[in-house]
Write a structure and sequence with these properties.
The structure holds two protein chains of two kinds. By secondary structure, chain A is mainly α. In chain A, 70% of the residues lie in helices and 4% in strands. In chain A, the strands form two sheets. Chain A has a two-stranded antiparallel sheet. In chain A, a hairpin with a 2-residue loop joins strand 1 and strand 2 (135-136). Chain B has a two-stranded antiparallel ribbon with strand order 1-2. The chains are: A mainly alpha, B mainly alpha. Chains A and B meet through helix 2, strand 2, helix 8 and helix 13 of A and helix 2, helix 6, helix 8 and helix 12 of B.
């Protein structure tokens, strides 16, 4: 215990560790603020677009009015009647847009959700009627978007911001657009967040947690290598003292685990803290889509295909998703720390260790991502928790539970390997 | 000159540089083998793509036939006629793909879009927008003009297309960052190993030290670029896909202009060389200011990744040096090599070098 505390003290006394920690935190804060501002500007662009559409109808009704005056002079009654109807329609649309703009500005979403739900009801019933660049939006996406809106309406939650004044769709793995439709779909469905929950949720689908884990290892995981390199031989000195090597190893590894995991959790929580200064943390009830996958084809696995019309899904609140993601994230960070320590024991250059650890994880993930028993599969925490991996592979083994199991075993395996390597290295010293 | 030769020697002896070269070599070879294995999948992929339209149109034809049995409707009759012709054209196209008749494939594809345009004006459903069909037709015509066949951008093993795929993957923000960090490690390592202290008592000026290092790191990155271009050039060469005309393969950009593959590769190579120079000046500047490996890496990564995020959110400008982290995309958007781009990158590199020299003069040692 004493050695452990001593190692912790050594780690926290280093100025460069603190500078690195502050720098990383600053980078995360800047990232959050950047996305916050992007979201704000997209919101104002949406209002502007709605304003433009409104103006189109305003000028339409004005034109119709001058046209009426002219027709009245010529005595063309049927034209006057048609034009009056057009004015009524244009004014109605104008009113709608005015309402939309004020709803955008006041952040009152109820009416918008209700309109979206009415529209989606029709879109689901009339298959193929809603299109992007003339390619139909699939049934699954429409259904999922509808349930999401119902969830948001029922719990009175704010949506994430998307670049559209019309229905904000929820993109799913069932979308099969090609060509220009892909770009258009990506543009209108990319989500930007203002709140802490929203930011964390949108980033988590982009390998955010594994990246934070890797950075934490890089900042706090150099305990062994910084004391065993060419110039600093602190560990070699400690080995000559009457301290057991096991104690030395446990103290160093333990202090690394505590500080790396602590830093990882701190970085994950940082956007929530920042958001207190902007738009608030947001609701932990925000819906997260979970795919339930399709049925296996009785004629063989090569004929398995997702069916957008019958496949099922459900939503879970963000808090459930986040807690599970944190458990997987911490375990994954420990796996990365194990790998990082192994490399740092062998090559002793922090940059090389970082690149090698990242590289090994990436290669392990790319080559073996079809296996639920490969620990690096769980780099895609989002894909595991929302069922993407299970649905795409038609294999329910890609689950939170198997993730915890596989990662825990890997942590122990790396612990053992690192201990053996440490023993081997210390024997060469002594 | 002597300083840079000495620094170059240090890099060459560094295991990390060898590791970078070896990893690059393995990655490209792996990609090539993957693509060779996947060659048979290309026609299957294309046929699957067109069968989506075939099903769509056949279904509409069935419905139209049923309607016509009940009552005579000239519009439906016309649509059915065009629909039948479209089904025929789609089948011919699929046959041409299956038999790998590249030239015929292009003609049939254009015919399909021609009939599909008519079909759409007769209110038939064909899930491809007019804009898209016009675009593909234009590309196909360009290909026919050059007597080329359509290649698969992801799986092709034709020389320029494979080279473009490789450069797209490696000369990317992640690739540049890794190369900069691994090569630049020779610099930050000296602060950690404390050999910089010895270095500073030598009768060498700050400017000479910084420029010498910059030059040698740039040379090392040049070697890395040669490996990338060389291997992605020679593997398909050994594999036999070496038609000279392939280097005029046209790539359309978002403005509808066509760039030839050869020109694109050369331009993106030039941008890469200059961007690497710029990234090393940033690395040397930050490194000589902070004088610590971990903090330098974190700051440089934050700057690079930040620049990448800014460009990927859509703020793209020729004046932003971080746009050139994706040289092939920049080259695709430009008609020819832009002097502004060259000026920006080299100008910023010179400013960075001067600042780095000033930062290096500070005598404090950490």
């Amino acid at each position: 215990m004493k050695t452990f505390l001593f190692e912790c003290k050594k780690l926290f006394r280093k100025r460069k560790v603190w500078t690195a920690a502050i720098l990383t935190s600053a980078a995360i804060i800047v990232l959050y603020l950047f996305f916050y501002h992007t979201a704000e500007s997209i919101r104002s662009v949406n209002s502007l677009k709605a304003e433009q559409y409104k103006n189109v109808f305003t000028s339409m009704s004005e034109e119709a009015r001058t046209e009426i005056a002219r027709s009245e002079r010529t005595g063309d009654d049927s034209a006057v009647k048609g034009l009056k109807e057009a004015i009524v329609r244009a004014e109605k649309s104008q009113e709608n847009y005015e309402q939309l703009i004020s709803d955008f500005q006041n952040r009152s979403w109820k009416r918008i959700y209700q309109q979206d739900l009415d529209f989606l009801e029709i879109a689901i019933n009339e298959k193929g009627s809603t299109i992007i660049e003339e390619q139909p939006i699939n049934d699954f996406t429409l259904r999922a978007t509808k349930i999401e809106k119902e969830w948001l309406l029922k719990r009175n939650l704010d949506p994430l911001i998307q670049q559209t004044v019309y229905t904000a769709y929820l993109p799913t793995i069932y979308d099969t657009f090609t060509g220009k439709a892909v770009e258009e779909w990506k543009k209108i469905t990319t989500r930007y967040a203002e709140t802490g929950v929203g930011f964390t949720y949108t980033m988590m689908s982009k390998y955010y947690l594994p990246l934070l884990g890797l950075i934490s290892c890089f900042v706090f995981g150099n305990g062994f290598s910084s004391q065993m390199n060419r110039k600093e031989r602190g560990l070699h000195f400690a080995m000559t003292q009457p301290v057991r090597k096991t104690t030395l190893f446990t103290a160093n590894y333990g202090s690394a685990i505590i500080s790396v995991v602590g830093f990882f959790l701190f970085l994950t929580g940082l956007p929530f803290l920042c958001s207190l200064l902007t738009k608030g943390i947001g609701s932990f009830q925000f819906p997260v889509l979970v795919y339930e996958g399709g049925k296996e084809n009785p004629f063989g696995s090569e004929f398995n295909a997702l069916n957008p019309e019958t496949d099922l899904f459900h939503f879970i609140p963000f808090q459930t998703y986040f807690l599970k993601a944190l458990v997987l994230g911490v375990l994954l960070t420990l796996v990365l720390l194990g790998l990082y320590t192994l490399y740092s024991l062998l090559i002793k250059s922090a940059i090389g260790t970082l690149v090698l650890t990242g590289g090994t994880a990436a290669v392990g993930w790319i080559l073996l991502k079809t296996s639920p028993y490969n620990p690096f599969t769980y780099l895609d925490i989002h894909g595991v928790l929302n069922g993407t991996l299970a649905a795409e592979a038609f294999n329910p083994a890609f689950s939170f539970e198997s993730g915890v199991g596989v990662l825990a075993v890997t942590v122990i395996v790396f612990l053992t390997i690192n201990f053996l390597v440490f023993q081997w290295l210390s024997r060469r010293v002594a | 000159m002597k300083t840079s030769m000495f620094e170059w020697k240090k890099i060459r002896r560094l295991k990390l540089f060898v590791a970078l070269a070896a990893a690059t070599f393995l990655l490209i070879t792996g990609m090539y083998i993957h693509n060779v294995v996947q060659q048979d999948l290309i026609p299957a992929k294309k046929i699957e793509y067109f069968s989506k339209f075939l099903t769509e149109v056949s279904q509409q034809n069935d419905t139209d036939q049923q309607t016509l049995q009940k009552s005579e409707d000239p519009e439906t009759k016309m649509r059915l006629e065009i629909g039948m012709a479209l089904v025929g054209a789609l089948k011919e196209l699929q046959d041409a793909i299956e038999n790998r008749e590249g030239n015929a494939e292009l003609s049939f594809e254009n015919t399909v879009y021609q009939i599909a345009t008519e079909y759409k004006s007769a209110l038939g459903t064909f899930s491809l927008s007019q804009k898209e069909m016009d675009h593909i037709t234009q590309v196909n015509q360009e290909l026919k003009k050059r007597n080329l066949i359509k290649e698969d951008f992801d799986l092709s093993i034709a020389q320029p297309l494979f080279m473009k795929k490789v450069t797209h993957l490696l000369l990317s923000p992640v690739g540049f960052l890794i190369a900069t960090l691994l090569i630049g490690n020779a610099f930050t390592k000296e602060w950690d190993d404390k050999s910089m202290q010895f270095n500073r008592v030598l009768p060498v000026s700050s400017a000479e030290r910084i420029i010498g290092r910059l030059f040698s790191y740039w040379l090392a990155s040049f070697v890395w670029l040669i490996i990338i271009y060389g291997i992605s050039f020679s593997l398909p060469y050994a594999g036999g896909r070496t038609e000279q005309s392939l280097f005029s393969y046209p790539f359309a950009n978002s403005n509808g202009q066509f760039n030839e593959a050869g020109g694109l590769l050369v331009n993106s190579g030039i941008y890469s060389v200059l961007f690497l120079l710029f990234s090393f000046t940033i690395f040397l500047l930050v490194g000589s200011m902070l004088r610590n490996a971990i903090i330098t890496v974190l700051l440089v990564s934050a700057v690079f990744i930040g620049g990448w995020i800014v460009t990927s959110v859509g703020v793209i400008s020729v004046w932003d040096p971080f746009t050139y982290q994706q040289p092939i995309q920049v080259a695709e958007q430009q008609k020819s090599l832009s002097p502004i781009s060259l000026l920006i990158l080299s100008g910023l590199s010179i400013v960075g070098t001067i600042l780095a020299c000033i930062a290096d003069k500070r005598r404090a040692l950490s």
